[in-house]
Amino acid sequence: MKKIEFTLLFLLLTVTFQAQKISGKILDQNNNPLSEARIGIENQEIGDITDSNGNYTIDLTNIDKTKSIKVIVNEYEPFKVTITNFLESENHTIILKKKIINLETVVINPKKYVLKNFGTSNSKKTYGGFDSSEPDDIFKEYAIKIKNKKNLKVKNININIVDYKFEKNVIFIFDIQNEKDGFPDDAQSLVNDPLRLIVTENDIKDKKVSLDISDKNIWTDKDFFVLVRIADDFKGQFSFGGNIFAFSKDTYYRNYFGKWKKYSGGEPSINVDVMIEK
């Protein structure tokens, strides 16, 4: 009987030891809370998004402690630390440093630059989207790749939406990143300010919403990715338009900081207006 009791106690202690839910805050250098900050395990679909007070909870139960915890907020330097080092710290408050991108002022000569649109703008066919009744959908992130070899400035990010029903406003969160090994790279964001667009059903005109970022002075002469996700308080559903069975197009997607995956056979209707060299 004592042997059985000892075994049960050992199993209970083992489960307790393995269960590691960690709570903390994510703040800026002035101790202001950062909401909508993503914290997760690199290359795994595990994580959380901070609330309005910067609070998060992340479950590290049975996670390989050599893996890394990441925090990404567009306008701040990425945070990354091994789980082992993270757990050794008694204080799980994370302070993010403001990111500084040196943006060169470029004077556009209209004779040398033309307005073009890159990406997909099909609004007739449904192609993926978000549904708050599906928990994993809320934390999905989509990306498209723009192939480019000329100097250009990004003016607008556009999304074509086919079907939609919101219980409240939806907040779109965008990023523009350079590539690494053929996929978006969090460490190479071209964005120095938050790119957020608050949308109501009445804001969707001709199945399209747009965010004007011409004042952000985002320039590149390389291939780049346009990323989009939604705030985690979204209630409702909507579907992108897109090109289905377009085998020359690719869809990139991930959950939290899981590995980027590529589906070669179509592309969601995410596109950008740019001023590009002739």
UniProtKB/TrEMBL annotation:
It comes from the Bacteria. InterPro entries: CarboxyPept-like_regulatory. Pfam families: CarbopepD_reg_2 (PF13715). This is TonB-dependent receptor SusC. The lineage of its organism: Bacteria, Pseudomonadati, Bacteroidota, Flavobacteriia, Flavobacteriales.
